[in-house]
């Protein structure tokens, strides 16, 4: 005969026991965290909305009274020109053709920093809508006796013309046309969807280029100490003088034309890596 287990009755709380209540400390902590997060979102948004509503047109010539040995530019929807001329101090002229942009500038430790930005960037659905009404423009003029200044440009949706003798030259661009001329101690390019032409740009130090989509034309009258180029979906043309250097190439789904003489074991290493896009290496005429 098989014994059948008798189910045990579910015990219930004694009569008169009050129902369990949520932990009041946990609830207070959650409310506090939610409040802090909400303030963190709303305060920056409010500040930027007020800035957008109250800022004045900042077009005009801005003269710098401090000494400048380097320039940093951060721009959105703005064309940029940098050049040297017969001026006593650094200066720049700003044309605010787009009222949805704000200009900020300062000098610290000899670095002139110029920022042209949208005041509501980076807040998703809380970002105020800023319709494009034209490209703004920044033209920076440096004294000739300050030749060799470092230049760092970061630009989105704007063209740039950089002419002169620079120290370290760095370009980070998206959706831009960039023209370089003159000389530089070094060149660094990190860009997307950009057309870069370095016409007669003499670089004595290293040249490092990382590009996704676009075009690079480099016409160098001088031999850099090093070249390292990595591109995806980019057409690349390098024209270099004859000299003692080793050429290294690596291509995937790319058309390669290599007309430069390469010396295995040379001190100068010029390396080119291309994934999709034409790669042409030629001797400078």
Properties at a glance:
globular; 11% helix; 285 residues; 13-stranded mixed β-sheet
Give a short summary of the structure.
The protein is mostly beta strands and 285 residues long. 11% of the residues lie in helices and 55% in strands. It contains one helix and 13 strands; from the N terminus they run H-E-E-E-E-E-E-E-E-E-E-E-E-E.
Unreliable residue stretches? 45-54, 122-132
* Secondary structure tally: strands: 13
Beta-strand content estimate:
over 45%
Tally of separate helices: 1
Ends: how far apart?
107 Å
pLDDT averaged over residues: 86
Structural class: mainly beta
Describe, in plain words, how this protein is organized in 3D.
β5 and β6 (111-117) form a beta hairpin. Strands 1, 2, 3, 4, 5, 6, 7, 8, 9, 10, 11, 12 and 13 form a 13-stranded mixed beta sheet that branches. The chain is built from one helix and 13 strands, in the order αβββββββββββββ. It is mainly β and 285 residues long.
What order do the helices and strands come in, and which of them pair?
Elements: H1 24-54, E1 60-63, E2 70-76, E3 78-85, E4 91-95, E5 102-108, E6 111-117, E7 136-143, E8 149-156, E9 160-203, E10 206-219, E11 226-240, E12 245-258, E13 268-283
């Amino acid at each position: 005969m098989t014994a059948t287990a008798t189910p045990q009755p579910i015990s219930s709380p004694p009569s008169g026991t009050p129902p369990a209540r949520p932990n009041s400390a946990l609830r207070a902590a959650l409310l506090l965290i939610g409040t802090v997060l909400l303030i963190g979102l709303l305060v920056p948004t409010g500040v930027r909305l007020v800035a957008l509503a109250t800022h004045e047109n900042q077009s005009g010539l801005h003269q710098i009274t401090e000494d400048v040995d380097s320039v940093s530019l951060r721009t959105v929807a703005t064309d940029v020109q940098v050049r040297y001329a017969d001026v006593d101090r650094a200066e720049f002229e700003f044309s605010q053709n787009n009222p949805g942009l704000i200009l900020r500038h300062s000098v610290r430790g000899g670095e002139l920093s110029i920022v042209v930005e949208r005041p509501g960037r980076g807040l998703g659905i809380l970002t105020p809508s800023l319709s494009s009404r034209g490209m703004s423009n920044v033209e920076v003029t440096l004294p000739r006796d300050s030749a060799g200044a470092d230049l760092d440009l970061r630009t989105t949706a704007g063209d740039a013309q950089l002419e002169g003798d620079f120290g370290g030259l760095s370009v980070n661009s998206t959706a831009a046309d960039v023209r370089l001329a003159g000389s530089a101690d070094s060149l660094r390019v990190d860009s997307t969807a950009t057309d870069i032409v370095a016409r007669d740009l003499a670089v004595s130090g290293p040249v490092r280029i990382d590009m996704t989509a676009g075009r690079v034309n480099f016409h160098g009258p001088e031999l850099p100490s090093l070249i390292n180029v990595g591109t995806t979906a980019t057409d690349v043309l390098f024209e270099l003088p004859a000299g003692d250097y080793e050429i290294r190439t690596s291509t995937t789904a790319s058309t390669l034309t290599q007309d430069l003489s390469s010396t295995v074991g040379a001190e100068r290493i010029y390396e080119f890596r291309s994934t999709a896009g034409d790669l042409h290496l030629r001797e400078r005429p």
